[in-house]
Amino acid sequence: MEFYKYQGTGNDFVIIDNRDLQFPKELEIIKKLCDRRFGIGGDGLILLEEEENADFRMVYYNSDGNESTMCGNGGRCIVAFAHFLDIFEDRTTFMAIDGLHEAEIRNGIVKLKMIDVESIENDGKDFVLNTGSPHFVQFVDDLEHFKVYECGNNIRNNATYRKAGINVNFVEKTSEHSIFVRTYERGVEDETFSCGTGATASALVFLKGKNLDSVEVKVLGGQLKVYAEQNGDAFRNIWLEGPAKQVFKGKINL
Question: What number is the average pLDDT over the span 196-202?
Answer without folding.
Answer: 97
